[in-house]
Amino acid sequence: MAKLYPYIYSDDAKYQAEFYVKALDGEIIMLKTFAELPQQNAKMELIKDKVMHLRLKVAGQIFFMSDSVNEPVRRGNGLDLTLEFEREEEARKAFEGLADGGTVLMPFAKQFWGSMSGMVVDPFGIRWQIATEL
């Protein structure tokens, strides 16, 4: 059986992960920079302080993150990250945390199918759906 981990590329992965730690009551559980690679070259010197790999735990889920060093980060609308919570209070706190500095696409509210749900684009351009279980 496989596990699926969202891998988020960022212009500043550490800063973005720290936002998620605060917004989603998470924890950075590992951070490696390019300076830690065993073999270095001239290009590595330029990006030595950039994040090569970061593991973030939020809402019981693991997310991978990295600074984008080869091309600019471009966001699209073809994928949302969805977190489903057991309790409305947890979901509302997560939604409000992600919306801080972001854009609410659909307010967090009771939906006709029975759960609470909302959509937000966080300040880094990541689209989220936050919901409660049915």
From TrEMBL:
Any Pfam family matching the protein: 3-dmu-9_3-mt
Domain PhnB-like: 8-130
Coiled coil: none
Superkingdom per UniProt: Bacteria
Annotated InterPro entries: Glyas_Bleomycin-R_OHBP_Dase, PhnB-like
PANTHER family on file: PROTEIN YJDN, PROTEIN YJDN-RELATED
Record's protein name: VOC family protein
Organism: Heliobacterium chlorum
